[in-house]
Each structure stands twice: as C-alpha cells, then as structure tokens.
Amino acid sequence: MRPRRHTRWRRQRGQSLLETALMIVVIFTVVFWVFELGWLMYTYSVLADAVNEGVRYAIVHSGGDVAGTQGTACE
Residues 65, 71: contact at Cβ < 8 Å? Predict the structure, then answer.
C-alpha cells in the first residue's frame, strides 16, 4: 500500500498556488484603483485651480463697462 501523504501535499501545493494567483489579481486591482483615485483627485484639483485663476483674471481685467450694459440699463 502506498502512503497517501505525497498526493495530499501535491494537492495542497496546487491549492495554495491557485489561492495566491487569485489574491495577486485582487491586490493588483486594489492598488490600481488607489492610483486611479489619486490621479482623479489631482486632475480635479488642477481644474478647480484653473477655473479660479480664469475667473479672477476675468474680474480683474474686465475694464469696467466694456459691453455697454450700464447705458442699456438706464435707457
């Protein structure tokens, strides 16, 4: 009669290899989404700053009544 110990160890080795492979996929997916979330937050911050600078530039350099709205409203 053969000892069953060797086949059991082989099965466990294959099972641990499969579990490791599946967990590596999950871990890499989580790490990828963390980097993507960071990139998204950075992009949002850059766009918000650009909008603030654009609005400030428009207010500072408006030059007063360029469109003639004051004259139109008083008529």
Answer: yes
What pLDDT score was predicted for residue 31?
A: 97
End-to-end CA distance of the chain: 111
Q: Is 64 left (phi over 0), alpha (psi -120 to 50) or beta?
A: left
* pTM recorded for the entire structure: 0.57
Q: List the chain domain ranges.
A: 1-51
The three-class DSSP label of residue 75 is coil
pLDDT band at 30 (very low <50, low <70, confident <90, very high): very high
Handedness of CA 30, 32, 38, 40 (dihedral sign): negative
Structure tokens at 29: 């997916």
Q: What is the pLDDT of residue 32?
A: 98
